[in-house]
Design a protein that fits this description.
The structure holds two protein chains of two kinds.
Chain A lengths: L2 E3 L3 E5 L4 E8 L6 E6 L6 E6 L3 E5 L2 E6 L4 E6 L8 E8 L5 E3 L3 E6 L1
Parallel strand pairs in A: 2-11
Antiparallel strand pairs in A: 1-3, 3-8, 4-5, 4-9, 6-7, 7-8, 9-10, 9-11
Chain B lengths: L3 E4 L2 E4 L5 E7 L4 E9 L6 E7 L5 E2 L8 E7 L2 E6 L8 E9 L8 E2 L3 E5 L1
Parallel strand pairs in B: 2-11
Antiparallel strand pairs in B: 1-3, 3-8, 4-5, 4-9, 5-6, 7-8, 9-10, 9-11
The chains are: A mainly beta, B mainly beta.
Chain lengths: ~110, ~120
């Protein structure tokens, strides 16, 4: 079956760095997405990785290793507004998005 | 990024009534639109995929006669929850994708919170 695993919840301190991991097993691979979802709101697109390596976008970076079925989202200089759920999603061979359950990130002052 | 709107943002209705939710892509043509449902503290659950001008493809366990989807144009898709019941209360989110390669990013609407009394 298809499976996306990410931690349920993480806690970090304002100003620090946090890494949210995602491992996947899917039928085919056409890219991995990270979305941010604040409570009560719809997800917003953060990043897309289809080749191995690190993609940097401001305070957020996303890494992919296709051979290991592994990705992480790195958030630097954490701000209170970064408190949200972070969803990992993989596009399979049918171009369907397979969603992880999300990681709730709690930022403490 | 691309903008997707959804209307209404919140709706409260009586059990047995039907509710229509609209999803519009405002600055791009969406060849494919997706409808998701999300229960509290759970991940997104794909309900159906719709391509403009064709019938929607429903996920297993989703009743197509209860959740009517119409993708009439490249910028508009509607979801109608027919004969709504309290268990249909949920957060309904649409997303839209441009192009036909399948690899384009999905952009989400702001969601519609449905409460059935």
């Amino acid at each position: 079956g298809q499976n996306i695993d990410q931690p349920t919840e993480m806690t970090a301190t304002e100003g620090a760095i946090v890494q949210i991991n995602c491992t996947y097993q899917t039928s085919g691979f056409n890219g991995l997405f990270w979305y941010q979802q604040h409570a009560g709101e719809a997800p917003t697109f953060l990043s897309y990785n289809v080749l191995d390596g690190l993609e940097e976008k401001g305070r957020f970076s996303s890494f992919l290793s296709r051979s290991k079925g592994y990705s992480y989202l790195l958030l630097k200089e954490l701000q209170m507004k970064d408190s949200a759920s972070y969803l990992c999603a993989v596009m399979d061979s049918n171009y369907q998005l397979i969603w992880g359950a999300g990681t709730k990130l709690i930022i403490k002052p | 990024g691309a903008v997707v709107s959804q209307h209404p943002s919140r709706v409260i209705c009586k059990s047995g009534t039907s509710v229509k939710i609209e999803c519009r892509s405002l600055d791009f043509q969406a060849t494919t639109m997706f409808w998701y449902r999300q229960f509290p503290k759970q991940s997104l659950m794909l309900m159906a995929t719709s391509n403009e001008g064709s019938k929607a493809t429903y996920e297993q366990g989703v009743e197509k006669d209860k959740f009517l989807i119409n993708h009439a144009s490249l910028t508009l898709s509607t979801l109608t929850v027919t004969s709504a019941h309290p268990e249909d209360s949920s957060f309904y989110i649409c997303s839209a994708r441009a192009g036909t390669s399948g690899m384009e990013t999905q952009y989400f609407g702001p969601g519609t919170r449905l409460l059935v009394l």
